[in-house]
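Supplementary Text 2. Reproducibility record for the structural model of the 110-residue chain.

All settings were left at their defaults, and a single model was retained for analysis rather than an ensemble. We include the record here because the model underlies the residue-level annotations in Supplementary Table 4.
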Amino acid sequence: MSNSPNQISEFFNGESENTNLLWHYVQSLNPETINQLSKPSSGEVFQVMERNIVGLLGGLPSEHFDVTISTNRENLGRLLASAMISGYFLRNAEQRMTFDKALQASEVSE
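Retained model, structure tokens:
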């Protein structure tokens, strides 16, 4: 498989049937649902995601360094995919933690 910089992946040019199905599904969602799915429900998840992305990009503090990051479209897409997968994982972990706490609380009250 060629990874030349001039080549546009299926992710961006929509050649994949699965990508089209997902894109159509996302487009069919109402704005409130997209807003709810886009934001973490806790500050902890947001902080973990922020640390993850800073770790991927490099952690030099911008107030002391003139940091410029450049990339190509393909690598930016991969970074976005990585952040989305991490966010999905963290959201599931957060939901499980909430469920476990609720279950433990109900066992204690019995």
